Amino acid sequence: MIAKTPEPPYYAVIFTSVRTDVAEGYGDMAIRMVELAEQQPGFLGAESARNAEGVALGITVSYWESLEAIRNWKRHAEHQLAQQIGRERWYERYKTRICRVERDYDFEQ
Amino acid sequence: MIAKTPEPPYYAVIFTSVRTDVAEGYGDMAIRMVELAEQQPGFLGAESARNAEGVALGITVSYWESLEAIRNWKRHAEHQLAQQIGRERWYERYKTRICRVERDYDFEQ
To answer: What is the value of pTM for the model shown?
Structure first.
């Protein structure tokens, strides 16, 4: 769902990835990483989508209170291991962008 | 695909949306808006993904040289019309976040 984030400024990590065709272990890891991220200090929410057709491009955006919270999450031991296995097995390529959210606005029917 | 963006800093618009079940006209509009965005001054690239299962959450991230380029795109007449029709027909809810990309890094097999 759309993450309920506080008033800006806050921070976002945009993780855009193209998967390999190795599925084994990926789903469990993805679920576990969301659970683990939710427990980290400064975590504000996350959103994730992946195309089912064509190139399997996926975008996950996680939101954080500070750059320090993002750094700590990047260095978290279990997350580090998932990143390493990800590079070896699940991801053909990815790009991570660290951003400061300056403004936001909403629409709801 | 993953957008080829220049060295930071640059800007990102994260558009997260939940669709209604109205499909008519949506695909054509989405294609047209990407074409039109690509023609705008300061446009750097875009990435898009939507879940096929569960809540149809979609994430589109577009990248821009400046906040002014983002403002101009938001106000573009044809884009304004698409936004209006979007609120009336295609989107149940959405959130737009304007960000400054501070850092990025890549991985490729």
So the answer is: 0.96
